[in-house]
Amino acid sequence: xxxxxxxxxxxxxxxxxxxxxxxxxxxxxxxxxxxxxxxxxxxxxxxxxxxxxxxxxxxxxxxxxxxxxxxxxxxxxxxxxxxxxxxxxxxxxxxxxxxxxxxxxxxxxxxxxxxxxxxxx
Length: 121
Hints:
By secondary structure, the chain is mainly α. 63% of the residues lie in helices and 3% in strands. It has a two-stranded antiparallel ribbon.
C-alpha cells in the first residue's frame, strides 16, 4: 500500500479548515449573523432611548396642561384657532411687496381679509 503524500494530506486538511471557517463565518449562527444581530440590537437600543425621551417630554407636557391654565389656553388658541370675546384678528395675504407697488390700484384697503369678532353689539 502506498502512503498518501504529504501534499495531499496538507490539501485535505486545508480544505477541511476552509470549510469549517466558512461554516463559522457564514453559517446559521455564524459571525456574519452575529454582527447583523448586534447592529440590530444597537439600533433598537437607540430607538428605545429616543422613545423614552419622547415619552418623558410628553409626560411633562401632560402635567403642564393639567396644572398651567395659561399654557393650556395658549395651546388651545394656537391649535384650535380660538379667539377671546371682543378680540380682533388681522390676516394679511402673503405676497411680494415689490409686485404690489408696481400694480395700479394696489392702494386699496387691505381690511377685507380681517376677521372681527364683536359680540358686544
